[in-house]
Amino acid sequence: METSTEEVAEEAGGPARPATAAVDGADAAVVPAAPDPVPVPAPVAIRPASLSPSRAGDFMQCPLLYRFRVIDRLPEKPSEAATRGTLVHAVLERLFDAPAAERTAPRARALVPGQWDRLRESRPEVGELFADDPRGERLARWLTEAEQLVERWFTLEDPSRLEPAERELFVETELDSGLRLRGIIDRVDVAPTGEVRIVDYKTGKAPRPQYAEGALFQMKFYALVVWRLKKVVPRRLQLVYLGSGDVLTYDPVLADLERVERKLLALWEAIRLATETGDWRPRPTKLCGWCDHQEHCPEFGGTPPPYPLPVRAAESDGTEQGRMGPG
Ligand code: SF4
C-alpha cells in the first residue's frame, strides 16, 4: 500500500500547514501565497524478495543495518577500501581476456589505470573519493596499493594455467520454499572431469581460524545455488585473500549445503517477521565503526526514517548487479 503525502506529514509530526495561512493576524488576502509545496515522495517499505550472501550477512550482523540497506535503501558513501576492491576484481576478471601466456603480473598492473577510468565512468560517485586531493598524491598511493594487491595474486594462483568457465557470474535460484537466492560468483573453474571449483577474491586479510566459518558462509551459499542450478555439489570452495596472501579452501559435502539451506530459511523467516512488524533491532558491535547509518541509528542517538506498514512486495533485495564492495 502506498502512503499518502498527508500520512507522511502526520508521521513526521502533524498535518501539513495550509499554503496561504495568515501571519500574526494579518489579512490573508495581502499575504503572498507560498509556492505549492513540492510533493514529498511517500516512504514505502519494500518487502524483500530474495537473499544474497551480503544481505544475509548484514542481517546476521545487525537487523537494523539490513533494514537501512534493503528496506529504506539509504544511500551510502563510497569508501576507498570498497572501491579498491571493485577495481581489483575488475582487473583480475579482465586479465583472462588475454591469451594464457600473456597473463603476467606486469600486464595485470598495466590494466589498473584503465579499469579505474572505466569505474569512474560507470559510477561517477567514486570520483568524489579524491575530490579533496588536487595534487593527486592520495590517488597515486591508492592506485599503487591496488597494483600491489593485483601483483600478490600471482603468488597465490597462476592465471596462465587457468581457464575459468565463468567470471563474475550472476546466479539465482529458487528454493522449494519459494525463497530466491542470488549473488555474483567471482570465478567458476570446471575440471575436465566435471568437478567444479568456486573462487572468490578478497582484497582484505584472511580471518583468524576461529572466524573462518563466517567467511565460508558466503561460499557455501554459492555452493548451494550451484547445486540447485546444476545438480552438482562443487568439489572445492576457495577464498583468495590478496590482502594477506592466503588461500582458504573447503571441500563441501551435501550435508553442508543442506545445513546452509536450513540456516537461510530460518534467517529468511526472521527477516519476514521483522519486515511485517517493523521490529528491526540494532545490534551494536565494533563493526558499527564502518556503518554509514549512525545518524539514523538509535544506538548513536539517531532516529530511523518512518517505517510505513504494511509493506509492499518487491522485485529484488537490492543485490548489486554490479559489484561494489571490498570483496
Ligand atoms: S551503527 Fe551499528 S547498530 Fe546501528 S545500524 Fe549500524 S551496524 Fe547497526
Overview of the molecule:
- GO terms for molecular function: exonuclease activity.
- Residues 1-23, 302-327 are annotated as: Disordered.
- The chain is an alpha/beta fold and 327 residues long.
- The protein has a domain at 80-159.
- The chain has eight helices and eight strands, in the order αββαααααβββαββαβ.
- It has helices at 5-11, 53-61, 63-71, 80-95, 105-122, 137-156, 212-230, 254-277, and strands at 46-47, 50-51, 166-174, 180-190, 196-202, 236-241, 246-250, 312-313.
- Residues 1-33 and 318-327 have low confidence and may be disordered.
- It binds iron/sulfur cluster.
- Iron/sulfur cluster (SF4) binds next to α3.
How do the helices and strands line up, and which of them pair or pack?
Layout: H1 5-11, E1 46-47, E2 50-51, H2 53-61, H3 63-71, H4 80-95, H5 105-122, H6 137-156, E3 166-174, E4 180-190, E5 196-202, H7 212-230, E6 236-241, E7 246-250, H8 254-277, E8 312-313
Parallel strand pairs: 1-8, 2-4, 5-6
Antiparallel strand pairs: 3-4, 4-5, 6-7
Helix pairs in contact: 2-3, 4-5, 4-6, 5-6, 7-8
Iron/sulfur cluster binds at residues 62, 64-65, 282-284, 287-288, 291, 293-294, 297, 299-300.
